[in-house]
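Lab meeting, action items carried over

1. Structure of the two-component assembly. Owner: GW. Status: complete.
Input record:
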Amino acid sequence: MSEVKFSKEHEWITLEGEVATIGITKHATEMLGDIVFAELPEKGSNVEKDGTAGVVESTKAASDVYTPVSGEVVDTNQAIVDDPSKINEDPEGSAWFFKLKMKDQSEMDSLMNKEEYDKFAKESAS
Amino acid sequence: MEIKKTSLNKLHQSNNAKFVEFAGYEMPIQYSKGIIEEHKFTRSHSGIFDVSHMGQLFIYGDETLTEELEKIFPLDLKNLKQNCSKYSFLMNEEAGIYDDLIITKIEEGYLIILNAACKDKDFEILSNLLGSKFKMNLDNNKSLIAIQGPKSVEILNSIINGVDQLNFMTGNWFDSDNQKLFITRSGYTGEDGFEISISNDKAENFVENLIEKGAQLIGLGARDTLRLEAGLCLYGHELDINKTPVEANLRWAISKSRLSNGGFIGSKKIMNQMQDGASQIRVGIKPQGRLIAREKTKIFDDTDTQIGEITSGTFGPSVNGPIAMGYVNKEFSKVDTKILLEVRGKKHPANVCALPFYKKNYVKGVN
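Predicted assembly:
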């Protein structure tokens, strides 16, 4: 599996073969608070880099989930729809959001690595 | 304008509060445990709420003051016993609501608890209505602390003996730490609890005492989910200048004896609406599934006609599902009416339901 990359919209992404797994970062869940609703893209649909690909709602507000890369949705995580609190518990592990068959793997290049993201998250939080 | 802070601001900080601006004040929205845990802790144990941003308006006077206030509020104040509280509204001639409030008869006159965002305007309106006959004091030297939840009576009574003898919606003076505190058995969470009016310099120490006895600080986020589960209105959401108490389904708060003769501001409109019914009315709404319908969500019938709008909507931690309140045309206000909520461009099914979503635990008849 590839190195974990991060977007400015606080998504994480890993790549295995041509399938990318995408979720939201721990930092994002800490900003959102208790997550009580998740909506995911439909399997088989196509999503475009930086476009909306889902929604999460905390007790406070609704936020769009963006996809950091383009592709076809090949799988979604029904477990987080059934129990959205799982997203707070394990955001960067079992609570992934969706898997994409990527169109253009070079889209990964512009994303941040862990060190860059941690710095970005720290700065954007203050 | 500089943001205002309550006397508990430092204590909030040392308890890792996340702050938001609310009505010009820096207030804690939540602490480290988060809204859901804070909510559940209040329902099962005892939560402390800093509500010092709310207005504590003292108006001093005798029977003449009672007569003057009866021209303003739809209450039978002449028969209100000393230390008893009533929920009421400050209205305009069209019965539009400037603010909702709790008024308590005290020995020297009345104490009115006002919403933070409305208190200065309320003071101006009441000053104009009452003239200079009565001394009025919007007391900024006092903090207001609420303690809510089933363990609150035991915790507060261990610090201030005798508060367990108060009935719901009554108050009294108590001695603590060389000062007289006015304490009422009331709150806005659907739980048994108290509100304590205390001088600013003693507030922090008092709250630390409550924490030591097992209560925990709770932020505005959980205060909102708690009051919504209890079916209680929040000014600026369910209530505003374009809504009347009849439309808000709060006619229970209007004293029956005042309905026959009127004589209070807005009485004509209220009496008309009581007779003919209001065209829109506040209802409880349960979306099907897990969908959350926020404020301003449009409500439709099955013919695609808009029939109303959501005023508050969130996830109810004790109900364990989404809940909302809103206004619908009166023909859609019956319990179990099927309606549609437009969220992110799609219409989702929901039901009109009875309020509250969560059953209240108020203590009545201690004495």
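2. GW to write a short summary for the group page. Key points so far: Chain A touches chain B through 15 residues (CB under 8 Å). The mean pLDDT of chain A is 94.
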